[in-house]
């Protein structure tokens, strides 16, 4: 029901966007600052994606933009020196898949965070939109021992975050599971069993292999770009003492022990890592928001930690090793089943890897497929895309004179690494036609100029 309500809201937004086009650009004259599982369902066998039909039929098909004019205008914009020497771009008709602009559309480019479009497609198609990630507590090997078991939910809110949420107005979207609640439920179960003192261990074995990805730069974790990838994490590995904790599972277990003590359970000072016994009795659990909501958050905020967790869930569901290598194999496995793997090479889920390569045509095709009414389970990919000038990573963009008319009309995923700037998304044209696009550059020397050029091109598409 929640997904349906959000989809209705998206349809309303689309109609509002058309109104904005008709009413005129004076509505958009504001200046904005420039700036930089539990998975219990059976393994799905998705059919190839269908791209026919726009996502919001209420808006109508509309007329196709004049191909020659669009191509010449975009070709000139794609030649902006701010984009550097390796640039690719494409515009597709979302209904038919017809290519309306080909600017080296099949050129592989480092995608940066537009990789998250691939991750979103794979996790929605494989794991499913309504699945949730569970963090549990089970009985340990001895009578008075318990084990905290991570299920791969990096959004699990620690004590500090939960307190902050309580003080804030309203709940965040999506509302995360709470470590406090897990401790309260665990204490209640223990007291019912007349246990008031325990030894605590933690199990983060659901994820294996290195905690940082292939092609990641060594400064990503120290600077706080991403936390070490682990199956047991609170607050996405963030810490008051620094950007990220070095050992997320231990930090989560220590915070859990503190909450148990507050709930009247004595916890032994020594907290150790240990695999939960097979078939152990479950004492308590909390579950994340559904996958579709996590996908929306990942895309809107360009959340690296969440992207890696969701990509790892694809590996689990697809029977691949629960590692970076396994998740990459699993994602490609899903894309092949969907017949959309051409032009995509990924080595992580977030796009931090400098080894990733994706063509503009592949990205635009995935977005067009997600917009099709024939692929309803992928629709949260569209609703998660930031809105130009208003939400997520586009909230402080589209304030320049050549991009301001695109504010509120363009929805797109951004991508940024050193030397890389990308933008892939969807918009209605001035004639009411739904189109998808991708513009990508990975030899950028002037990031500010590159961002301005990308936003300008997306606006050109929206006004075509």
Automatic annotation (TrEMBL):
<keyword id="KW-0378">Hydrolase</keyword>
<dbReference type="InterPro" id="IPR000667">
    <property type="entry name" value="Peptidase_S13"/>
</dbReference>
<keyword id="KW-0645">Protease</keyword>
<dbReference type="GO" id="GO:0004185">
    <property type="term" value="F:serine-type carboxypeptidase activity"/>
</dbReference>
<dbReference type="InterPro" id="IPR012338">
    <property type="entry name" value="Beta-lactam/transpept-like"/>
</dbReference>
<comment type="similarity">
    <text>Belongs to the peptidase S13 family.</text>
</comment>
<dbReference type="GO" id="GO:0006508">
    <property type="term" value="P:proteolysis"/>
</dbReference>
<protein>
    <submittedName>
        <fullName>D-alanyl-D-alanine carboxypeptidase</fullName>
    </submittedName>
</protein>
<keyword id="KW-0121">Carboxypeptidase</keyword>
<dbReference type="GO" id="GO:0000270">
    <property type="term" value="P:peptidoglycan metabolic process"/>
</dbReference>
<dbReference type="Pfam" id="PF02113">
    <property type="entry name" value="Peptidase_S13"/>
</dbReference>
């Amino acid at each position: 029901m929640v997904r349906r309500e959000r989809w209705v809201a998206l349809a309303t937004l689309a109609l509002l966007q058309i109104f904005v086009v008709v009413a005129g650009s004076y509505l958009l004259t504001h200046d904005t600052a420039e700036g930089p599982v539990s998975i219990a369902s059976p393994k799905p066998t998705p059919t190839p994606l269908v791209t026919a039909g726009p996502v919001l039929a209420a808006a109508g098909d509309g007329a196709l933009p004049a191909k020659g004019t669009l191509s010449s205008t975009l070709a000139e914009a794609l030649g902006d020196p701010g984009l550097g020497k390796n640039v690719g771009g494409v515009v597709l008709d979302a209904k038919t898949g017809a290519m309306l602009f080909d600017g080296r559309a099949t050129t592989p480019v480092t995608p940066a965070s537009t990789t998250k479009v691939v991750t979103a497609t794979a996790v929605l198609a494989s794991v499913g939109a309504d699945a949730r990630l569970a963090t549990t507590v089970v009985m340990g090997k001895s009578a008075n021992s318990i084990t905290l078991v991570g299920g791969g939910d990096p959004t699990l809110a620690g004590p500090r975050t939960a307190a902050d949420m309580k003080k804030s107005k309203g709940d965040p979207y999506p509302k995360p599971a709470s470590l406090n609640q897990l401790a309260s439920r665990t204490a209640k179960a223990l007291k019912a069993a007349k246990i008031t003192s325990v030894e605590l261990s933690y199990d983060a074995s659901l994820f294996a292999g290195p905690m940082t990805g292939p092609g990641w730069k060594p400064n990503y974790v120290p600077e706080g770009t991403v936390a070490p990838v682990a199956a047991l994490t609170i607050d996405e590995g963030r810490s008051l003492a620094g950007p990220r904790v070095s050992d997320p599972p231990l930090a989560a277990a220590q915070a859990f022990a503190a909450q148990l003590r507050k709930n009247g359970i004595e916890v032994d000072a020594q907290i150790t890592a240990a695999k939960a016994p097979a078939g152990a009795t479950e004492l308590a659990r909390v579950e994340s928001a559904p996958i579709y909501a996590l996908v929306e958050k990942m895309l809107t905020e360009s959340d690296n930690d969440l992207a890696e967790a969701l990509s790892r869930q694809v590996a689990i569901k697809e029977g691949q090793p629960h590692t970076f290598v396994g998740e990459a194999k699993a994602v490609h496995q899903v894309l092949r089943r969907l017949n959309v793997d051409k032009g995509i090479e990924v080595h992580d889920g977030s796009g931090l890897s400098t080894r990733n390569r994706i063509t503009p045509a592949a990205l635009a095709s995935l977005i067009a497929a997600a917009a099709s009414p024939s692929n309803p389970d992928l629709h949260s990919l569209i609703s998660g895309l930031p809105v130009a000038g208003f939400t997520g990573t586009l909230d402080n963009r589209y304030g320049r004179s050549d991009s301001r008319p695109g504010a509120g009309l363009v929805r797109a995923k951004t991508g940024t690494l050193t030397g890389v700037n990308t933008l892939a998304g969807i918009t209605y044209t001035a004639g009411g036609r739904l189109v998808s696009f991708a513009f990508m550059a990975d030899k950028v020397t002037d990031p500010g100029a590159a961002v301005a050029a990308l936003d300008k091109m997306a606006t050109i598409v929206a006004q075509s």
